[in-house]
Amino acid sequence: MSATGGNIDEQVVRGFGDEWTRFDQSALSDAELRAMYDPYFAIFSWDALPHDAAGFDAGCGTGRWARFVAPRVGRILCVDASEDALNVARRNLASSRNAEFVHAPIERMPIADASLDFGYSLGVLHHLPDTAAAIRTCVAKLKPGAPFLIYLYYAFDNRPLWFKAIWRASELIRTTVSRLPHALRYAISQLLAAVVYWPLARLARRLERAGKNVANFPLAYYRDRSFYVMRNDALDRFGTKLEQRFTRAQIERMLRDAGLERIRFSDAAPYWCAVGFRGVS
Fold it and tell me: Looking at domain 10-155+245-278, does it have CATH number 3.90.950.10?
């Protein structure tokens, strides 16, 4: 159950409002933002979109993904439950005249069913009490045949047992830290970025350059990322109270139950990213 009823947790919403205010992405170069964006959208079906397509970004945060999507579509609705996050997105997308901003939780998006040509939600729906219900809400807004792109935290189903054991240990830290006062959560997350994320990520980069396979090396995903991204993601990871993780099979089942067909998963990190098309029946 949520903190206030419905498919939303207000404490999580406030936390992300604070996170995106602190980390508004303005310190990142276009090149690094693009490098983060590309793996998510590598499987997106741009060719399936009509001219001047209209769609939504469910849980837009700072608008960091919409900044790359907006130039390719006719209209993008940036939806977020946090007014603070939307204020950041408005600043970041000030030059995107086709971007519109909607302050609403996903379960109450003021969008007519079967009205949009595409949708996506990246790294958001696993922070809601009922992820499957949120997926159904998103898919309902799409026209038949429209694509929906989603990224949900994975349950390490493609990792060895020792990797999962490390995650379980980190989960004990997260469940403790995420319940602390906000200022303390932030301080601890930044310490973890400095003493855990940065050393392991840079070690992974050195190993890779030495010819080693770092696919299963902890935090290797950050080997080419800036310290800013590590600080941001450490706060996201350890400062968020509500986090769910899913296997690839569980995600596929939720997508199919929501009415998506022709589902395809990315085989590259971050896991799991998938795209499907709303059924025509």
Answer: no
